[in-house]
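input
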Amino acid sequence: MKRLFLFGICLTLALPISIFAEGEKSAPKIKFTGYGELIYSYFDYGPDQKSGPSGSPPDSRATIDIARLALEMELRLLRGVELETEVEIEHGGTGGALEIEYEEFGEYETEVEKGGEVILEELYIKREFSDAFNIRLGHFYVAVGLTTEQYHPTDFFGTRRPESETSVIPAIWHETGIEISGHTNRLTYQIQLINGLDATGFDSQNWIVGGHQTRFEEVRATNMALVGRLDYRIVDGLTLGVSGYRGNSADNRPKPDMKDADAYVSIFDVHAVLRYNRFRAQGMYLYGNLQNADIVSERNRTLSNNLDVLRTPVASAAYAFYAEAGYDIMPFFTSRKEDQCHLFFRFDSYDTMAEMPQNFFDNPRFQRRVYTLGINYTMGNAVVLKGDYAMRRLGTGNFNGENTASFALGFQF
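output
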């Protein structure tokens, strides 16, 4: 992998003069886009799932969340050469905040954020040679899963992105590296060489999600990762795709405490998107494996409290599945073609502790199923009002059910 990375660096250094400079000067062209979401939720259960043997106790509480505001800019620098950047403001901004971490026995933890973050999710240069061959250099989305493609408020049903996928891999996952991509009449492909994950952030609750490097000013790239993705349009409106990820995460830890073992993360997913007249559906199945999960769990157990990680056992395998389908009932009430009103159902199933190393406890509360019913009212593909009722069920034991009623406002431009 390191040799492949060095080859990528050499290619990166060689290309700017001979390839990127080939573009001719043209009048700058700037394009601004963006999207945002606000969510109100009512919960009939408490926030601490570890408060008793039956999970979260009954409760009555509500929250309002300025979930995100993303601003995107595309700037044409040369003919065939573009700069793209995206900044996302999550949960209302940044500052200093105190939170309760129930996975750490209800401890109070201070975070340098005012309930949220300002994140640079994309910053890259793209050179377009043809439809079939393009190169991106910089910081961009990782081409794994379905949310990386279907992330705007009008792309998915429900007030929140699919819980199964966002509980197992980062959402939206973005890293730095080089990408080769292109498409033909029916096939789209992406090949990426990016920085790897940091195994200190792996935990029971969200598997490798916390390995996305956001805690330090610089991202460690001692371990790189290789990503591949193929999407094939079978017929108009129906696309089937696969993606994969492979990368070590042992040497990206802040301290060299895993020099004696590797921690390769391997992920594979298959996904599909269907758009047919008034019917919409999409879904994904993802499976992941972590090498030497027992060693990672042991080393993480002794990490400093100041590192702000959970230090809970890590699974050697996790999975996520979801499927959602909706039908547009608007034509029954009006002839306006600009608006749509979808009644939908979504089913999520995931387990962040699907397989555990020997001598580690497989906690059944991390095996979860979520049934969501709701409605999406979309106006001109620009504004969407959403309402849903989600019923979460935990494990195979006698855990209390967790039910949530939510309403959301989303927009994009």
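quick obs: The mean pLDDT is 90.
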